[in-house]
C-alpha cells in the first residue's frame, strides 16, 4: 500500500480567500458584486479607486483580519500590497498560510 | 440635553435609538432615520438623540468617555420614558439595562477604534509624518489625540481599547444575517437600503407591539 498522495489542506482555499476578499471590497467600497467580480490581478486599488481613501483602506484591513482570521501588523501595510487587487490577494493568501 | 431626531408627535416616544459611534454614526444616520419613518408607519414613534460631543452636540468631543455616554443613554431612556431601546453596533456597550433593549449587529468599539487609528496612520504616511498605528494608539492613550478626524481624549482611548462587546446580557440581539443585505456601516458612502430598513422596522415593531 503506497502513501496517500495528498493530505487535506487546512484553512480556507485560494478560491475561498478570493471570494471573501471580493465580498469585503464590495461591502467597504459600496460597489455592486458584479463590478467587483470583474476585478483581475491588475485592477488598481489605492490611488486608482476614488472610494478607497485612508479610512476605507483601514476598514478594509480590519475586515480582512476579522473575516480571514489573520492579524495585519503595522509593517505589513505598504503601498505595494494595496496597489492592485492581485497584490492584495497574494498578501491575504500569505497571511492565511502564515496562520 | 442634546438634539434628537424624533417621530413622536404628542405622546412620549416608544423607542429610543442609540446610534453607532464615530465614523459608523455618520455612515448609518440616513438609514436609521429612514427606519424611524418606517416604524412610524407601523404605529411606533421613536427618538434618536445625539451622544454628547457627536453630530450637532456642542459639548467638547475630547472630554467624552464611554462611561459618560452610558450615563447619557440611560438618562435619555428615563427622560423619554421609552418602552424599548435599540442600540446599534458599538453602541451596544452603552446599554446598562435601563429599558428592555434590542442590540442590532453588535460590534466591539475596539475594532472600530483600531480602524480609525490605522486610517490616521495611513493619512499621516501620505502627509510624510509617518507614525505607526501603535505610536498613535500610545499617544492617544497617554494624552489624547486627533484620530481620523475625531478628537479622542485619553480616557476615551483607554476605554475604546478595552471595551467588550456587550454589557447588558438581558438584551435581545438582532443579527445582520437576520436583516440581510450589504452592511451599510462599512462603506464611507453609507447610503440607504429600503429593504433593510423595512426588515429592521418589522422586527422591532413585533418586539415592541402597539399600545
Quick summary:
The complex is a heterodimer of chains A (99) and B (211). Chain A is mainly α.
Under CATH, the topology of the largest domain in chain B can be stated as Rossmann fold
Task: Give the termini separation of chain B.
Answer: 27 Å
Oligomeric description of these chains: heterodimer
- What is the helix fraction of residues of chain A, given as a range? 40-55%
The number of E-state strands of chain B comes to: 8
Under the CATH scheme, which architecture of the largest domain in chain B would be assigned?
A: 3-Layer(aba) Sandwich
Indicate the mean pLDDT of chain B. 93
- Low-pLDDT residue spans of chain B: none
- Under the CATH scheme, the architecture of chain A is Orthogonal Bundle
Shape of chain A: globular
Please give the share of residues in helix of chain B: 40-55%
| Largest pleated sheet of chain A | none
CATH top level assignment of the largest domain in chain B: Alpha Beta
CATH topology of chain A: Non-ribosomal Peptide Synthetase Peptidyl Carrier Protein, Chain A
Poorly predicted runs of chain A: none
CATH superfamily of the largest domain in chain B: Response regulator
User: What is the CATH domain class of chain A?
Assistant: Mainly Alpha
Distance between the termini of chain A: 33 Å
Detail the topology: elements first, then pairings:
The complex is a heterodimer of chains A (99) and B (211).
Chain A: H1 14-29, H2 33-37, H3 54-68, H4 85-98
Helix pairs in contact in A: 1-3
Chain B: E1 4-6, E2 15-18, H1 22-41, E3 46-49, H2 66-80, E4 84-88, E5 101-104, H3 109-126, H4 133-143, E6 145-147, E7 150-152, H5 154-162, E8 172-174, H6 176-179, H7 194-208
Parallel strand pairs in B: 2-3, 2-4, 4-5, 5-8
Antiparallel strand pairs in B: 1-3, 6-7
Amino acid at each position: 500500500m503506497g502513501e496517500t498522495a495528498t493530505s487535506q489542506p487546512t484553512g480556507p482555499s485560494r478560491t475561498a480567500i478570493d471570494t471573501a476578499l471580493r465580498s469585503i471590497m464590495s461591502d467597504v467600497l459600496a460597489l455592486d458584486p458584479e463590478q467587483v467580480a470583474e476585478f483581475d490581478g491588475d485592477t488598481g486599488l489605492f490611488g486608482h479607486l476614488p472610494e478607497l481613501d485612508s479610512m476605507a483602506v483601514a476598514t478594509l484591513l480590519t475586515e480582512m483580519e476579522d473575516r480571514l482570521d489573520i492579524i495585519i501588523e503595522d509593517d505589513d501595510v505598504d503601498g505595494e500590497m494595496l496597489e492592485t487587487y492581485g497584490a492584495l490577494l497574494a498578501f491575504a493568501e500569505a497571511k492565511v498560510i502564515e496562520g | 440635553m442634546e438634539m434628537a431626531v424624533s417621530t413622536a408627535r404628542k405622546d412620549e416616544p416608544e423607542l429610543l435609538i442609540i446610534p453607532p459611534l464615530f465614523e459608523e454614526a455618520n455612515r448609518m444616520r440616513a438609514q436609521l432615520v429612514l427606519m424611524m419613518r418606517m416604524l412610524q408607519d407601523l404605529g411606533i414613534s421613536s427618538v434618536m438623540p445625539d451622544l454628547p460631543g457627536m453630530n450637532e452636540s456642542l459639548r467638547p468631543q475630547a472630554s467624552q468617555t464611554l462611561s459618560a455616554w452610558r450615563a447619557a443613554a440611560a438618562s435619555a431612556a428615563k427622560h423619554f420614558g421609552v418602552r424599548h431601546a435599540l442600540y446599534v453596533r458599538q453602541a451596544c456597550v452603552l446599554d446598562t439595562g435601563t429599558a428592555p433593549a434590542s442590540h442590532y449587529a453588535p460590534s466591539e468599539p475596539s475594532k472600530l477604534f483600531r480602524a480609525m487609528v490605522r486610517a490616521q496612520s495611513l493619512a499621516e504616511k501620505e502627509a510624510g509624518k509617518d507614525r505607526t498605528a501603535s505610536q498613535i494608539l500610545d499617544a492617544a492613550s497617554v494624552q489624547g489625540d486627533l484620530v481620523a478626524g475625531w478628537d479622542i481624549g485619553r480616557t476615551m482611548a483607554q476605554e475604546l481599547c478595552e471595551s467588550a462587546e456587550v454589557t447588558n446580557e438581558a438584551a435581545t440581539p438582532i443579527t445582520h444575517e437576520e436583516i440581510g443585505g450589504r452592511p451599510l456601516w462599512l462603506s464611507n458612502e453609507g447610503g440607504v437600503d429600503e429593504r433593510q430598513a423595512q426588515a429592521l422596522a418589522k422586527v422591532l415593531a413585533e418586539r415592541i407591539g402597539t399600545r
